[in-house]
Amino acid sequence: MKKMQDSPLLKTTLGSLTLENPFILSSAPPTSNGQMIRRAFGAGWGGAVIKTITPDDMPIRDVSPRFTAWKSECNDLLGFENIELLSKHSVSYWVQEIGAIKSEFPDKILIASIMGSPDPATWQDLAEDVQNAGCDAIELNVSCPHGMPEAGIGSAIGQNPRMVQDLTQMVVKVADVPVYVKLTPNITDISPVALAAALGRADGISAINTVSCMFGIDIDTLTPLPNVDGYSTYGGYSGPAIRPIGLRMVSQIAKTVPLPIMGIGGISRWQDAVQYLLLGASAVQVCTAVMWNGYGIVRGMKKGLTDYLKEKEYSSPDELRGLCLDTLTSHQSLDRKLRIRPHISNPASCIRCGRCVIACRDGGHQAIELKSDGVVINTAACDGCGLCIQICSTGTLEKESYSAV
Ligand SMILES: Cc1cc2nc3c(=O)[nH]c(=O)nc-3n(C[C@H](O)[C@H](O)[C@H](O)COP(=O)(O)O)c2cc1C
Protein backbone atom coordinates (compact mmCIF):
# COMPACT_ATOMS: atom_id res chain seq x y z
CA MET A 1 0.00 0.00 0.00
CA LYS A 2 1.38 3.43 -0.93
CA LYS A 3 2.19 5.55 2.12
CA MET A 4 0.20 8.78 2.36
CA GLN A 5 2.68 11.65 2.65
CA ASP A 6 1.92 14.37 5.20
CA SER A 7 1.71 17.93 3.96
CA PRO A 8 5.21 19.47 4.22
CA LEU A 9 3.45 22.22 6.16
CA LEU A 10 3.08 19.84 9.12
CA LYS A 11 6.82 19.19 9.55
CA THR A 12 7.58 19.97 13.20
CA THR A 13 10.73 20.58 15.18
CA LEU A 14 10.94 19.01 18.62
CA GLY A 15 14.30 20.06 19.99
CA SER A 16 16.86 18.13 17.94
CA LEU A 17 14.18 15.83 16.46
CA THR A 18 12.08 16.36 13.35
CA LEU A 19 8.53 15.04 13.18
CA GLU A 20 6.41 14.51 10.04
CA ASN A 21 3.58 16.08 12.03
CA PRO A 22 3.21 17.23 15.66
CA PHE A 23 0.79 14.45 16.67
CA ILE A 24 2.32 11.83 18.99
CA LEU A 25 0.62 9.01 20.88
CA SER A 26 1.31 9.32 24.59
CA SER A 27 2.56 6.48 26.76
CA ALA A 28 -0.69 4.59 27.43
CA PRO A 29 -2.86 1.69 26.17
CA PRO A 30 -2.67 2.78 22.47
CA THR A 31 1.09 2.06 22.59
CA SER A 32 0.88 -1.16 24.61
CA ASN A 33 2.63 -3.39 22.08
CA GLY A 34 4.62 -3.29 18.88
CA GLN A 35 1.74 -4.22 16.57
CA MET A 36 -0.38 -1.38 17.92
CA ILE A 37 2.43 1.13 17.37
CA ARG A 38 2.90 -0.16 13.81
CA ARG A 39 -0.85 0.32 13.12
CA ALA A 40 -0.73 3.80 14.65
CA PHE A 41 2.22 4.78 12.45
CA GLY A 42 0.38 3.34 9.45
CA ALA A 43 -2.62 5.51 10.38
CA GLY A 44 -0.40 8.61 10.24
CA TRP A 45 0.79 9.50 13.75
CA GLY A 46 4.06 11.41 13.70
CA GLY A 47 5.44 9.65 16.76
CA ALA A 48 4.63 7.39 19.68
CA VAL A 49 5.72 7.11 23.29
CA ILE A 50 5.83 3.46 24.36
CA LYS A 51 3.68 2.43 27.35
CA THR A 52 6.06 2.87 30.31
CA ILE A 53 8.73 0.15 30.43
CA THR A 54 9.87 -1.07 33.87
CA PRO A 55 12.67 -3.42 34.98
CA ASP A 56 11.74 -7.11 34.72
CA ASP A 57 11.91 -7.51 38.49
CA MET A 58 9.07 -4.95 38.89
CA PRO A 59 6.17 -7.16 37.70
CA ILE A 60 3.03 -5.26 36.68
CA ARG A 61 -0.29 -6.77 37.81
CA ASP A 62 -3.34 -4.75 36.83
CA VAL A 63 -6.74 -4.83 38.54
CA SER A 64 -10.07 -5.27 36.76
CA PRO A 65 -12.01 -3.15 36.07
CA ARG A 66 -9.73 -0.12 36.00
CA PHE A 67 -11.61 2.60 34.07
CA THR A 68 -14.60 4.89 34.71
CA ALA A 69 -15.96 7.35 32.16
CA TRP A 70 -17.93 10.59 32.50
CA LYS A 71 -19.97 10.91 29.30
CA SER A 72 -22.39 13.35 27.70
CA GLU A 73 -25.89 12.18 26.79
CA CYS A 74 -24.55 11.48 23.27
CA ASN A 75 -21.82 9.19 24.64
CA ASP A 76 -19.14 11.80 23.96
CA LEU A 77 -16.35 11.47 26.48
CA LEU A 78 -15.93 14.35 28.94
CA GLY A 79 -13.58 12.85 31.52
CA PHE A 80 -11.95 9.48 32.10
CA GLU A 81 -10.45 7.86 35.18
CA ASN A 82 -7.97 5.01 35.13
CA ILE A 83 -6.10 3.04 37.78
CA GLU A 84 -4.01 1.17 35.22
CA LEU A 85 -0.34 0.45 35.79
CA LEU A 86 2.54 0.22 33.27
CA SER A 87 3.68 -2.04 30.42
CA LYS A 88 3.40 -5.74 31.10
CA HIS A 89 6.02 -6.60 28.46
CA SER A 90 9.60 -7.43 29.38
CA VAL A 91 12.55 -5.19 28.64
CA SER A 92 13.82 -7.70 26.05
CA TYR A 93 10.41 -7.62 24.29
CA TRP A 94 10.68 -3.85 23.93
CA VAL A 95 14.34 -3.89 22.96
CA GLN A 96 13.49 -6.23 20.09
CA GLU A 97 10.37 -4.24 19.09
CA ILE A 98 12.07 -0.83 19.21
CA GLY A 99 14.71 -2.01 16.74
CA ALA A 100 12.15 -3.66 14.46
CA ILE A 101 9.69 -0.73 14.47
CA LYS A 102 12.45 1.81 13.80
CA SER A 103 13.69 -0.16 10.81
CA GLU A 104 10.14 -0.39 9.40
CA PHE A 105 9.28 3.27 10.16
CA PRO A 106 12.59 5.17 10.14
CA ASP A 107 10.88 8.56 9.75
CA LYS A 108 8.58 8.16 12.75
CA ILE A 109 9.74 9.28 16.18
CA LEU A 110 9.71 6.44 18.72
CA ILE A 111 10.14 7.50 22.34
CA ALA A 112 10.67 5.01 25.16
CA SER A 113 8.95 5.88 28.44
CA ILE A 114 10.78 4.31 31.37
CA MET A 115 10.32 3.97 35.11
CA GLY A 116 12.84 2.27 37.37
CA SER A 117 12.76 1.55 41.09
CA PRO A 118 13.73 4.20 43.70
CA ASP A 119 17.34 3.26 42.83
CA PRO A 120 18.40 5.61 39.97
CA ALA A 121 20.81 2.93 38.65
CA THR A 122 17.77 0.95 37.46
CA TRP A 123 16.65 3.96 35.40
CA GLN A 124 20.14 4.19 33.92
CA ASP A 125 20.05 0.50 32.94
CA LEU A 126 16.66 0.93 31.26
CA ALA A 127 17.84 4.09 29.48
CA GLU A 128 20.88 2.27 28.07
CA ASP A 129 18.77 -0.70 26.97
CA VAL A 130 16.21 1.37 25.06
CA GLN A 131 18.70 3.72 23.46
CA ASN A 132 20.91 0.84 22.34
CA ALA A 133 17.78 -0.64 20.76
CA GLY A 134 17.42 2.53 18.67
CA CYS A 135 14.71 4.70 20.23
CA ASP A 136 14.81 8.39 19.27
CA ALA A 137 14.31 9.75 22.79
CA ILE A 138 13.61 8.69 26.36
CA GLU A 139 10.75 9.93 28.54
CA LEU A 140 11.12 9.62 32.32
CA ASN A 141 7.78 8.76 33.90
CA VAL A 142 8.02 10.54 37.25
CA SER A 143 4.31 11.32 37.18
CA CYS A 144 2.08 8.23 37.39
CA PRO A 145 -0.33 9.18 40.22
CA HIS A 146 -1.58 5.75 41.29
CA GLY A 147 0.07 2.57 42.49
CA MET A 148 3.64 3.61 41.84
CA PRO A 149 3.80 6.48 44.41
CA GLU A 150 3.03 3.90 47.11
CA ALA A 151 6.40 2.36 46.15
CA GLY A 152 8.19 5.73 46.22
CA ILE A 153 8.24 6.20 42.43
CA GLY A 154 5.88 7.76 39.83
CA SER A 155 4.51 11.08 41.06
CA ALA A 156 6.28 10.58 44.43
CA ILE A 157 9.43 11.57 42.51
CA GLY A 158 7.71 14.16 40.30
CA GLN A 159 6.42 16.06 43.33
CA ASN A 160 9.94 16.52 44.67
CA PRO A 161 12.12 18.95 42.65
CA ARG A 162 15.38 17.72 44.23
CA MET A 163 14.62 14.11 43.29
CA VAL A 164 13.61 15.16 39.76
CA GLN A 165 16.88 17.04 39.29
CA ASP A 166 19.04 14.21 40.65
CA LEU A 167 17.26 11.46 38.70
CA THR A 168 17.33 13.46 35.47
CA GLN A 169 21.03 14.14 35.92
CA MET A 170 21.74 10.43 36.49
CA VAL A 171 19.87 9.38 33.34
CA VAL A 172 21.28 12.19 31.19
CA LYS A 173 24.76 11.05 32.24
CA VAL A 174 24.29 7.74 30.38
CA ALA A 175 21.94 8.94 27.62
CA ASP A 176 23.01 9.86 24.13
CA VAL A 177 19.43 10.48 22.92
CA PRO A 178 17.25 13.37 24.17
CA VAL A 179 15.74 12.87 27.63
CA TYR A 180 12.26 14.26 28.30
CA VAL A 181 10.85 14.40 31.83
CA LYS A 182 7.09 13.79 32.08
CA LEU A 183 5.69 15.96 34.87
CA THR A 184 2.74 15.49 37.17
CA PRO A 185 -0.05 18.06 37.52
CA ASN A 186 -0.62 16.86 41.08
CA ILE A 187 1.42 19.64 42.61
CA THR A 188 0.63 23.20 43.63
CA ASP A 189 3.21 24.83 41.35
CA ILE A 190 4.74 22.96 38.43
CA SER A 191 7.40 25.62 37.71
CA PRO A 192 9.98 24.52 40.32
CA VAL A 193 9.75 20.94 39.04
CA ALA A 194 10.26 22.07 35.42
CA LEU A 195 13.24 24.10 36.60
CA ALA A 196 14.61 21.07 38.44
CA ALA A 197 14.38 18.99 35.25
CA ALA A 198 16.22 21.75 33.38
CA LEU A 199 18.91 21.92 36.07
CA GLY A 200 19.27 18.15 35.73
CA ARG A 201 20.00 18.86 32.03
CA ALA A 202 16.79 17.38 30.60
CA ASP A 203 16.42 17.98 26.86
CA GLY A 204 12.70 18.62 27.17
CA ILE A 205 9.53 18.34 29.21
CA SER A 206 6.33 16.35 28.66
CA ALA A 207 3.26 17.57 30.54
CA ILE A 208 0.84 16.63 31.87
CA ASN A 209 0.24 13.13 33.19
CA THR A 210 -3.20 12.40 34.66
CA VAL A 211 -4.82 14.45 37.42
CA SER A 212 -5.29 12.57 40.71
CA CYS A 213 -9.00 12.03 41.36
CA MET A 214 -11.75 10.10 43.09
CA PHE A 215 -14.22 9.52 40.28
CA GLY A 216 -17.30 8.84 42.38
CA ILE A 217 -19.47 6.54 44.45
CA ASP A 218 -22.30 4.35 43.18
CA ILE A 219 -24.97 5.64 45.56
CA ASP A 220 -27.13 2.51 45.21
CA THR A 221 -24.46 0.00 46.13
CA LEU A 222 -22.34 2.43 48.19
CA THR A 223 -19.24 1.25 46.32
CA PRO A 224 -16.48 3.47 44.93
CA LEU A 225 -15.70 3.73 41.21
CA PRO A 226 -14.02 1.95 39.55
CA ASN A 227 -15.31 -0.85 41.77
CA VAL A 228 -12.68 -3.52 42.41
CA ASP A 229 -14.59 -6.02 44.54
CA GLY A 230 -16.14 -3.29 46.68
CA TYR A 231 -13.01 -1.14 46.98
CA SER A 232 -11.21 1.42 44.85
CA THR A 233 -8.30 3.83 45.04
CA TYR A 234 -7.43 7.33 43.85
CA GLY A 235 -6.95 7.28 40.08
CA GLY A 236 -5.74 9.41 37.18
CA TYR A 237 -8.17 11.73 35.40
CA SER A 238 -7.72 12.40 31.67
CA GLY A 239 -9.66 13.48 28.57
CA PRO A 240 -11.33 16.82 27.67
CA ALA A 241 -12.04 17.76 31.31
CA ILE A 242 -8.32 18.15 32.09
CA ARG A 243 -7.40 20.24 29.02
CA PRO A 244 -7.62 23.58 30.88
CA ILE A 245 -5.27 22.18 33.54
CA GLY A 246 -2.83 20.96 30.90
CA LEU A 247 -2.89 24.28 29.08
CA ARG A 248 -2.19 26.17 32.29
CA MET A 249 0.72 23.95 33.23
CA VAL A 250 2.28 23.89 29.76
CA SER A 251 2.18 27.68 29.61
CA GLN A 252 3.73 27.90 33.09
CA ILE A 253 6.50 25.52 32.06
CA ALA A 254 7.10 27.46 28.83
CA LYS A 255 7.44 30.67 30.84
CA THR A 256 9.90 29.00 33.23
CA VAL A 257 12.35 26.98 31.10
CA PRO A 258 13.56 27.37 27.50
CA LEU A 259 13.12 23.65 26.73
CA PRO A 260 10.98 21.95 24.07
CA ILE A 261 7.67 20.78 25.51
CA MET A 262 5.34 17.99 24.46
CA GLY A 263 1.90 19.23 25.52
CA ILE A 264 -0.52 16.61 26.84
CA GLY A 265 -3.98 16.58 28.36
CA GLY A 266 -7.45 16.41 26.85
CA ILE A 267 -6.44 16.79 23.22
CA SER A 268 -9.01 15.30 20.86
CA ARG A 269 -9.28 17.90 18.06
CA TRP A 270 -6.78 19.87 15.99
CA GLN A 271 -8.00 23.04 17.70
CA ASP A 272 -6.89 21.64 21.07
CA ALA A 273 -3.44 20.95 19.66
CA VAL A 274 -3.15 24.47 18.24
CA GLN A 275 -3.88 25.91 21.67
CA TYR A 276 -1.08 23.85 23.23
CA LEU A 277 1.33 25.03 20.50
CA LEU A 278 0.28 28.66 20.96
CA LEU A 279 1.02 28.31 24.69
CA GLY A 280 4.53 26.99 24.18
CA ALA A 281 4.40 23.31 23.20
CA SER A 282 6.50 22.11 20.28
CA ALA A 283 4.41 18.98 19.72
CA VAL A 284 1.45 17.27 21.40
CA GLN A 285 0.66 13.84 22.79
CA VAL A 286 -2.76 12.16 22.81
CA CYS A 287 -4.14 9.19 24.77
CA THR A 288 -7.78 9.19 25.89
CA ALA A 289 -9.25 10.51 22.63
CA VAL A 290 -7.61 7.58 20.82
CA MET A 291 -8.87 5.08 23.39
CA TRP A 292 -12.40 6.41 22.74
CA ASN A 293 -12.28 7.01 18.98
CA GLY A 294 -9.32 5.10 17.53
CA TYR A 295 -6.06 5.94 15.75
CA GLY A 296 -8.01 7.34 12.76
CA ILE A 297 -8.70 10.66 14.52
CA VAL A 298 -5.23 11.77 13.47
CA ARG A 299 -6.41 12.22 9.87
CA GLY A 300 -8.91 14.94 10.84
CA MET A 301 -6.37 16.50 13.19
CA LYS A 302 -3.76 16.72 10.43
CA LYS A 303 -6.23 18.09 7.89
CA GLY A 304 -7.59 20.65 10.32
CA LEU A 305 -4.12 21.84 11.30
CA THR A 306 -2.97 21.99 7.66
CA ASP A 307 -6.01 24.08 6.68
CA TYR A 308 -5.49 26.36 9.68
CA LEU A 309 -1.81 26.92 8.88
CA LYS A 310 -2.68 27.71 5.24
CA GLU A 311 -5.50 30.07 6.17
CA LYS A 312 -3.33 31.94 8.69
CA GLU A 313 -0.33 31.86 6.33
CA TYR A 314 2.04 30.00 8.65
CA SER A 315 4.58 27.68 7.07
CA SER A 316 4.96 25.22 9.97
CA PRO A 317 3.51 24.35 13.40
CA ASP A 318 6.86 25.66 14.69
CA GLU A 319 5.68 29.18 13.90
CA LEU A 320 2.77 28.85 16.33
CA ARG A 321 5.01 27.95 19.26
CA GLY A 322 4.40 30.24 22.22
CA LEU A 323 2.69 32.98 20.20
CA CYS A 324 0.09 33.53 22.93
CA LEU A 325 2.34 33.24 25.97
CA ASP A 326 2.63 37.01 26.36
CA THR A 327 -1.17 37.35 26.47
CA LEU A 328 -1.13 35.69 29.91
CA THR A 329 -0.57 38.33 32.55
CA SER A 330 -1.36 38.96 36.21
CA HIS A 331 -4.96 39.50 37.33
CA GLN A 332 -3.98 42.93 38.68
CA SER A 333 -2.86 44.13 35.27
CA LEU A 334 -6.03 43.13 33.41
CA ASP A 335 -8.05 46.01 31.96
CA ARG A 336 -11.00 47.14 34.12
CA LYS A 337 -12.43 49.72 31.73
CA LEU A 338 -13.39 47.46 28.84
CA ARG A 339 -16.73 45.79 29.67
CA ILE A 340 -19.07 43.41 27.92
CA ARG A 341 -22.83 43.02 28.08
CA PRO A 342 -25.35 40.78 26.34
CA HIS A 343 -26.80 41.99 23.07
CA ILE A 344 -29.63 40.48 21.03
CA SER A 345 -29.36 40.99 17.28
CA ASN A 346 -31.72 38.18 16.30
CA PRO A 347 -34.63 37.94 18.79
CA ALA A 348 -36.31 35.25 16.64
CA SER A 349 -33.56 32.76 17.59
CA CYS A 350 -34.59 32.87 21.28
CA ILE A 351 -36.47 29.73 22.35
CA ARG A 352 -37.64 31.36 25.60
CA CYS A 353 -36.06 28.61 27.72
CA GLY A 354 -35.47 31.09 30.54
CA ARG A 355 -32.02 29.70 31.41
CA CYS A 356 -30.37 33.13 31.13
CA VAL A 357 -33.02 34.68 33.37
CA ILE A 358 -32.53 32.06 36.10
CA ALA A 359 -28.73 32.20 35.85
CA CYS A 360 -28.67 35.98 36.07
CA ARG A 361 -31.26 36.02 38.86
CA ASP A 362 -29.61 33.42 41.11
CA GLY A 363 -25.99 33.49 39.98
CA GLY A 364 -25.60 37.00 38.64
CA HIS A 365 -27.01 40.49 38.94
CA GLN A 366 -30.79 40.25 38.35
CA ALA A 367 -30.46 42.07 35.02
CA ILE A 368 -32.56 39.85 32.70
CA GLU A 369 -36.32 39.37 32.52
CA LEU A 370 -38.49 37.21 30.29
CA LYS A 371 -41.41 39.34 29.13
CA SER A 372 -44.24 38.53 26.72
CA ASP A 373 -42.20 39.86 23.80
CA GLY A 374 -38.99 38.05 24.83
CA VAL A 375 -35.85 38.56 26.88
CA VAL A 376 -35.26 42.08 28.16
CA ILE A 377 -31.86 43.18 29.44
CA ASN A 378 -31.46 45.88 32.06
CA THR A 379 -28.06 47.24 31.02
CA ALA A 380 -27.84 49.46 34.11
CA ALA A 381 -28.03 46.39 36.41
CA CYS A 382 -25.74 44.25 34.21
CA ASP A 383 -22.27 43.81 35.75
CA GLY A 384 -20.68 42.36 32.61
CA CYS A 385 -19.85 38.94 34.07
CA GLY A 386 -20.94 37.14 30.89
CA LEU A 387 -22.73 34.22 32.59
CA CYS A 388 -25.86 34.64 30.45
CA ILE A 389 -23.84 34.45 27.24
CA GLN A 390 -22.17 31.27 28.43
CA ILE A 391 -25.48 29.60 29.30
CA CYS A 392 -27.44 30.61 26.15
CA SER A 393 -27.74 27.46 24.00
CA THR A 394 -29.00 29.18 20.84
CA GLY A 395 -26.48 31.98 20.49
CA THR A 396 -29.24 34.57 20.91
CA LEU A 397 -27.24 36.42 23.56
CA GLU A 398 -24.16 37.84 21.88
CA LYS A 399 -21.24 39.70 23.43
CA GLU A 400 -21.21 43.47 23.00
CA SER A 401 -18.11 45.35 24.16
CA TYR A 402 -18.08 48.90 25.44
CA SER A 403 -15.83 51.15 27.46
CA ALA A 404 -16.95 51.97 30.99
CA VAL A 405 -15.38 55.44 30.87
C1 LIG B 1 -5.48 4.00 30.79
C2 LIG B 1 -4.31 4.92 30.82
C3 LIG B 1 -3.03 4.41 31.01
C4 LIG B 1 -1.92 5.27 31.05
N1 LIG B 1 -0.67 4.75 31.20
C5 LIG B 1 0.40 5.58 31.21
C6 LIG B 1 1.73 5.05 31.27
O1 LIG B 1 1.95 3.84 31.28
N2 LIG B 1 2.76 5.95 31.30
C7 LIG B 1 2.57 7.30 31.25
O2 LIG B 1 3.54 8.07 31.27
N3 LIG B 1 1.32 7.82 31.17
C8 LIG B 1 0.25 6.99 31.14
N4 LIG B 1 -1.01 7.52 31.01
C9 LIG B 1 -1.18 8.99 30.93
C10 LIG B 1 -1.27 9.47 29.48
O3 LIG B 1 -0.11 9.18 28.75
C11 LIG B 1 -1.56 10.98 29.40
O4 LIG B 1 -0.49 11.67 30.03
C12 LIG B 1 -2.86 11.37 30.09
O5 LIG B 1 -3.86 10.41 29.87
C13 LIG B 1 -3.39 12.73 29.63
O6 LIG B 1 -3.61 12.76 28.24
P1 LIG B 1 -5.09 12.54 27.58
O7 LIG B 1 -6.02 13.51 28.21
O8 LIG B 1 -4.88 12.75 26.10
O9 LIG B 1 -5.47 11.13 27.89
C14 LIG B 1 -2.12 6.67 30.93
C15 LIG B 1 -3.41 7.17 30.74
C16 LIG B 1 -4.49 6.32 30.68
C17 LIG B 1 -5.86 6.90 30.45
Q: What report would you give on this structure?
A:
With 405 residues, the chain is α/β, with parallel strands linked by helices. It folds into 2 domains: 8-327, TIM Barrel, CATH 3.20.20.70; 338-403, Alpha-Beta Plaits, CATH 3.30.70.20. The chain is 31% helix and 22% strand. It has 12 helices and 20 strands. The protein has helices spanning 34-43, 91-104, 120-133, 155-158, 161-174, 191-199, 243-256, 270-278, 288-293, 297-312, 355-363, 387-391; strands at 12-14, 17-19, 23-25, 47-53, 67-71, 77-82, 109-114, 137-141, 179-182, 204-207, 211-213, 216-218, 223-225, 235-238, 261-264, 283-286, 338-344, 368-371, 374-377, 397-403. It has an 8-stranded parallel beta barrel with strand order 3-4-7-8-9-10-15-16, surrounded by 8 helices. Helix 3 (120-133) crosses helix 5 (161-174), helix 5 runs parallel beside helix 6 and helix 8 crosses helix 10. It is globular. The mean pLDDT is 97. Residues 26-29, 51-52, 80, 82, 84, 86, 113, 141, 144, 182, 209-210, 238-239, 242, 264-267, 286-289 line the site of flavin mononucleotide (FMN).
Beta-strand content? 15-25%
Provide the CATH topology of the largest domain.
TIM Barrel
Ligand identities: flavin mononucleotide
User: How far is it from the N-terminal to the C-terminal residue, by CA?
Assistant: 65 Å
Which sequence of strands runs across the widest sheet? 3-4-7-8-9-10-15-16
Q: How many discrete domains? A: 2
CATH superfamily of the largest domain: Aldolase class I
Subunit organisation of the chains: single chain
